[in-house]
Design goal:
CATH class of the largest domain: Mainly Beta
Order of helices and strands: HEEEEEEHEEEEEEEEEEH
Number of helices: 3
Number of domains: 3
CATH architecture of the largest domain: Sandwich
Radius of gyration: 37 Å
Strand content: 25-35%
Distance between the termini: 154 Å
Structural class: alpha+beta
Largest sheet: 5 strands, antiparallel
Strand order of the largest sheet: 5-8-3-11-12
Length: 295
Amino acid sequence: MKKKIKILAGIICCAVLCITSLFNALADTASVNGHEVKAGDTVTYIMYMQDSPYPISGVHMYVFFDSSLLKPVPQSENSEGFKNAIINTDVNVETTETKRKNLGEILLVSAENPVRGADFSQKKQIISVDFEVIKAGKGEISYKIVELYDIYHDEDGAYVKRYTLTSDLLVNGEAVGQEEIPIVNNISEADYNGPFVNQKSGRGEDSGKPLDPSYTYVFETLADTKPPKLTVNNVDEKVDGKVDGDAGGDGDTKNIIITVSIVLLLAAVLVVIQLRRQKVNNVSESGEPDSENLD
């Protein structure tokens, strides 16, 4: 009997240890965008864009995260595709909706060269930022684009409609999610909404449709001193604003010189004709050649 009791006690102790270990493991486990992580891990969120037929001239967007679960790592943020990007990981603007949802936010804005733009025809990183997992729980990293313009569509109400967005998730430097469709945040407050229409599919509504023939752009791998050639409505333009085939100020000067020369030549011809007429008139009136007008 005592032997059975000892065996039963041992089984109970093992079960308690297993349950305790399980609870401890669960207490440290978190989930970000459906991927398992642990408290203390570093999560890297990277968002990409590609398939834009036209260079991107400007962007205004947010990356949202569960602030009760994640904390941005200072100075880890960067943007490969937007050279003029300003990224603020410490916005500290609390609204009714962000407070209710425990949303932290990262702001990215960039204004690129209005003629050259930023090339997103091929896959390029929009933003990358590291987060520290501060406790167990379940949360997500999402985004919301307010404005996104290309060099042809930058007026009020216009926005980019041809693109493909993807995201990667790394845990301690190792990829756990690649080429995923990024999560669109459905925050509804006015400050986070603009003309851009965020698609849950990660693709623009005009993706796959024929391009408007009025807009064409040739991407070239040129040095910074030789910007790519831009063709709009069959009119060739260059970044400095000069029309193709136009030498700029020197060409204008030459045109002026040629015009003035032609005018002076015509004036000289008219003077010669007038002198010849006077000579003929003098001869006819006197009946003798005018000695002063013989030459």
